[in-house]
User: Fold these one by one.
Assistant:
Number 1:
Amino acid sequence: MKVFTGPQVRAWDAYTIEHEPVRSLDLMERAALACCQWIVGNYALKGRVCHIFCAKGNNGGDGLALARLLLERNVPVRVYILEFGNLGTEDFQANLAGLHPLTQDITFIQSRDAFPGLPADAVIVDALLGSGLNRPLEGLTADLVRFLNGSGRPILAIDLPTGLRTDEPSAGGPVIQAAHTLTLGSWKLGLLLAENAPYFGEVHLLPIGLDPVYEAETASPLRVTDLELARGFYRPRSSFSHKGTFGHALLVAGNEGKMGACVLGARACLHSGVGLLTLLVPREQAVIVQTAVPEAMALSDVDAVKPSAYKALGVGPGLGTDDAALELVERVLGLAAQIQPETGTAGGKVVIDADALNLLGTNPRLWAKVPRGSILTPHPKEFERLFGPAANDFERVRMALEKAAEHRCVIVLKGHRTLVATPDGSGYFNTTGNAGMATGGSGDVLTGILTGLLAQGYPSQQAAVLGVYLHGLAGDMALDSASMESLTASGIVDGMGKAFKHLGAGTVL
């Protein structure tokens, strides 16, 4: 699914109204019904009252329609409307008229004195403002947001938390701190960025029947990676394949005291489906990987590497950043130019991670040796060392897209919603993964997965998008037998089998 700007989201609503055709009031009803079904299905509502706060725009109209639908299901509701003397939108007025026969429990808030008392078990719904906000909140609206945030009650936001801006930072005013956000119809950029995480809580995308033609015909450089997209990239195995079919990968990783990074990357590479794997490790450490990963071969001399034997290489985890590591990375990147990728793929021979990224950041001359189509996997601090600081997450996204195009590489900017920025200027936000994956070694696992997919002939863009999705999905699958607190990087590797099965692995042609 594409990620549209605020104006594009509103244009999608208008396009649906015009081309379905459907009345705007009916589209609002769909949105309210989707929210109602989610609330009834996910909240223990018996004996609890829903306190719904509305302004007089269409987001408030959604709130009024939701109130009516909940009342029709015998859920107690109290409605509060911010009153500034205007009538509100036509659809707001229509929903208010439809609500009056069901309840008189409607309070118009004209001052702070009208802010209600909220019982401990209150279900608070924020239906104040939607995606059209372009400046910080002020006055009574800001006061109400501060009041709700200070109530200590969990808040459920409709479409966007009030005060959160779609396409730019929301600094300068208060923002609703929602426990859940029910976003309507499509993802919004502001709901994908870590700096807004304190405001949107858990995000739930609710389809409301928007016309798919608009999405197909409207350009956007950003999209989210969902199961449908990942399955479109995935290549099932042929029953007549053999280990040579799936490529030979070289992983350059590990050093004294950091061989775990190599072991994790190696296990992940093997679990990603690579045919053969060789590890380039210090001689005195080779026994570790030969014992821990018997399926892999080991080399201890970079001079023994024959580039023609490999389809892809990964470099960086656990190497260190001393002069010896710098020399090794420089030599390995020099060898990368001689690796021949699978026929029909465009570049995509190298994954650069961890210490190799830090060395690249402090030794810019290495850029000349980075092949086009390489995959770089920085976390935000490594990204800053490579490309400089960003003022906020919005700017960091723009920088990632620009730098991927400039260097003709794929940048995997790691985070909860990892962004894959590609040379053609497009970006993919990942939708799998969980907080348990914030653990040492998780990045080494991702490096192994990406290296394995490259060796199997996936183009670098597809390898990055699919690999990041699988990495997160494996972490999610691992929670079948672990908690977020107990999840380890090894557990992520162990979840790869279930992840591939979910994606469609095991099917033969």
Number 2:
Amino acid sequence: MSHAPARVADAGTTLPSPTQGSRHRWWVLAVIGIAQLMVVLDATIVNIALPSAQQDLGFSNGNRQWVITAYALAFGSLLLLGGRIADLVGRKATFLVGLAGFAGASAIGGAATGFSMLVAARAGQGVFAALLAPAALSLLTTTFTDARERAKAFAVYGSIAGAGGAIGLLLGGVLTEYMNWRWTLYVNLFFAVIALVGGTLLLQRTARDKSATIDIPGTILVSAGLFCLVYGFSNAETHDWDAAATWGFLAVGTLLLAAFAWWQTRAAHPLLPLRVLLDRNRGASYIAVLISGASMFGVFLFLTYYLQQSLGYTPVQTGLAFLPMVAGLMIMTVVATTRLVPRTGPKPIVPLGMGIAAAGLAWMTTLDLTSSYATHVMPPLITVGLGLGLVMAPAMSTATAGIAAPDAGVASAMVTTMQQIGGSIGTALLTTVSASAATDYLAGKNPKDPTVLAHAALETYSTAYWWSAGFLVTGLVVSGLLYRRGVPKPDQNATPAVHM
């Protein structure tokens, strides 16, 4: 084992000695993975349970979206603040508080006696997830600094980030079908308790910078701006794009984020130092995460509708149907991060993944009412998984590689923010264009004919797949242009590598 003394990084933050906590770093990865899985699957696990919850609590179809939107709004708008809190207060403390709060909010949601209580609990989950997610990723970034070990760790993390949505669908289906909808929330308590115990025992505390302060104006600007963006896109799912509540919130959100960017050039302790964004590889990675997040909903959301409404699958069968995609994603994530990227860098790998996933989505447009799973559904689904596996973990790893210790939390928060905003944009855009496609198809046809309606539904799905493929082709071009050639050189300011 090599030994090196603790060093003092920028902004006065003490970096831990590389031997601290390193002996149990793979157990630390397990703890972080469990916490990340809990956060990611919660974006989809409740979706399948919504009809049951609606029937039990008696809320309207118009209010139903708020069970999903409340989580997305709180999570998306507070992520950068959560990342900065992790940097300033300490990653271990932030991680544990996030876990405990998320578990508490989940318990309240599971015990909800009415719509307002359920929505408040979902918002609470989002608040604590905004603390938990960036702390988890920054802990991973600072725990694994050796290039080979870091690649393996991010292979695991990227697999969870990419597959968590599909796992949520499967787990949500099982819990809803064999227990009841409340267990889609109660199940978080099992994840949280395991991660809390492991985190308390294994994670090392690091000294915080007592001279630094939270950028209050920046926090208000970016939180309000992200809230307006997420709300605007969420509103577009149920209202027209020309509705004042849609374009108004989107416009205000854009202006607030522009003001935030301006303020960050003048703040003494900026919430998001622009040096985090201006690195070409890091910027390309953020864009890759944004675009892949938007396109993934074309698979999860619309293929779920197709399997259940067009082919008559049960919730459990639907969740099981996604497993080959998850397997493909996990296999390719390991190959990409441990074999390909260390040899070539992210430039050829991430654009290639975008292209493969786009081809898989284009292939999905051929699905119809007579398609069989093994012959027609599974092959393109695996193709999408293989493509996304080449994108997710390499982009996340590159986005946080070589970052100075005082910025690890906020750089990690940007990864999750991009994924969250991408999901909101993707859901809103795909829902809108697919609904327009159905309207166009039904023009001049009998809307009461079941066959006509079934084919109109197919039109909505194929339109969503084409648009998702378009997102990925755009990502292919942008990432191909922005990423630098070659393997990134190790950052001299990173924590020394550890060899056990």
Number 3:
Amino acid sequence: MDSMGSTGSGDVTVPVKGGELWAHDSGDPGGTDGGAGLPLVLLHPGVGDSRIWDGILPRLTERHRVIRYDARGYGRSPAPTAAFSLVEDLTAVLDHFGVARAVLAGSSMGGATAVSLALREPARAAGLVLVVPGITGADDLVPVEFMAELGRLAEVGDMEGLVALLRRTSGAAVTGPDPEVEAHLRAVIPAWFANYPHNVPDPPAYDRLGELDVPCVLALGELDQAEVVRVNETMARRIPGCRLVRLAHSDHFPTVREPDAVADLILEALPGAR
């Protein structure tokens, strides 16, 4: 058995070290791919909470058990009050749902967490779908100029300035009004401030990608920041057997820009997981 424990569906509060998380388990849909298939765990980016997956969720839950959750401070999860690690929280979620092994689909920050778990506990990762993934240990992933401007805007509490900065960099695929992406950004920026004093970075993974032994597909957004594209290309080269997919119309929000393409990648990866 690749999963154990309860597969009941619904919203759940998951206890984690020094806090709790909101999570949702879609339950076993039954049918050919239901009970016999591996659970799918969705990990959201830093620029959106778990609602970033809403547009593709119905296609995923139709035939698969899907678990998603909000990282601390995001969405429906309370802000942290103690030190925490993203990969340790993911492990706690898997343990809570009795999942011994799963396919992990992670976007940006969530992609970094998925890779960290696959390196830390290889037996628990049956497959990786990395969507514009981040990665720990890549010093050139975020430009110095961007961090300086981000820090300046954060220091004065300029929420609209932060949204505009992220629109120019991470959301460049749309030059006009972009209410959906702006709503995601406004919802998560408070989590950045709440999490910063408590989030303990997971160990560097960039130089360890060659150790991964798991089916993997990596999707980059051609319209994403040049630094992210470059790091994503390097990640795909370093991960043994990784398939690189280029999303021509996506920036750092592929689930918003090309939801069907992202859903296709995840659904194609599930049968090949081991």
Number 4:
Amino acid sequence: MSEAASTRTPVVLLPSLLPSLAPLLREWLPRQRWFAGKGRPVTGFSLVSATEMLPLGGAGAGLLHLLVRVEQPDFPDPDPATAPGPQDCYQLLLGVRGALPPHLAHALIGHPADGPLAGRAIYESLHDARLAELILERLRTPGALGPLRFDRLDDGGPAIPGGLAARPLDAEQSNSSLVYGDAYILKLFRRVHPGPNPDLELPLALARAGCARVPAPVAWYEATTPEPYTLGVLQPFLRGSQDGWLLALDALAAGQPFTDEARELGRVTAEVHTALAGALPTVMLRRPQTEHLAASMTERLDAAVQAVPGLRPYAPRLRAAFDAIAALGRRGRAWQAQRVHGDLHLGQTLLGASPPGSPPGHALWSVIDFEGEPARPLSERRKPQPVVRDVAGMLRSFDYAARTHRPWNPGWAERCRTAYCEGYAQVSGVDPRTEPELLRAYETDKAVYEVVYEARHRPDWLPVPMAAIDRLAATHT
């Protein structure tokens, strides 16, 4: 190393770095699918941390890791719990080159007009195989790099091989993912919050408990200062697995039942819940907590009515579902709460090939994506909740699948719902349908959420949750 290289001031320490990148980020960020603040102007940035993962001073590509708070004005939102904050923090991995080769032209963010990187090409690094592979190299060996820390399971686990080719996945929404040689998948969290991310915390607890239904984290990395942030989790890539949502749609299209699969999914859900209850603390929801739960559901309903006026005629009957659990709490009813998936549906399940030595036809279902609803605050996603929250999410997913098929097949969905609850009871010993008031409240709350989501993002799908609203409201007459 030359004397000049060894004594240079790291680019990340220069105060002009972020101001020089700000004009580029102001244009680029709102176009990213994972950016939560769409529709509001970006008024400024503040730097949380910066790390040269690959030095930026050389002639080749450099890799710059940034945690940046994005400043935006507040705006009224029907559900304050899901509204983007005025200073959301984002993880950015920026490639830096003197000139961008043609195959990376689509990844260009821009060229700073001034500052320490003036005139150089700044681009999304995940499309650069060399830089993407560098991230895996960092994960292979635990340790610190500036404010970043790379870590592994307690026993270290099997060695991660080097030299695996990287490719980004295009189907991501709220995060980004890299696949390494069809052996591993690295989920990179984009909008990050201080504290443990459930998508690391829960699979890690399940792995330590010996639960094989969830891919165990192989390695991960975090920011340690100025606050702890979970930034990325590396897990086995379940090559050849089939998405539960697509399998359900295929069954509908072929006129085939899905009850065996639904029953097995019920058993799998109960296995995961049982393992989580054994690995992490549980609590009891008594009158104060139950009343707070019902009040929160009612508040979300009232906000949804303001956002989607078509809900207004149903509101009194929907509200009755929430009043019912509050009334039970006042009469002394209590429910156990524990850590749950938080956003369970068919798309969060994968069907893999039969394990070696298993009986013919026996396939392995896995549950993935324990982040919960990413739009909700991290503190809310980490709260213990009744297991019927996950059950309600899966029941709604069967209904969604059936509604996407023409003609609508309500019997298909009902048979799946029944089989799922039966499978759940076979493992847990408790049929979720024996708690009708709580299950109905959670299913209603989920349907209300779906109505707001579809009205905002997919108006053509709005009839799907509205049909559920009509059904659920009819049960409260």
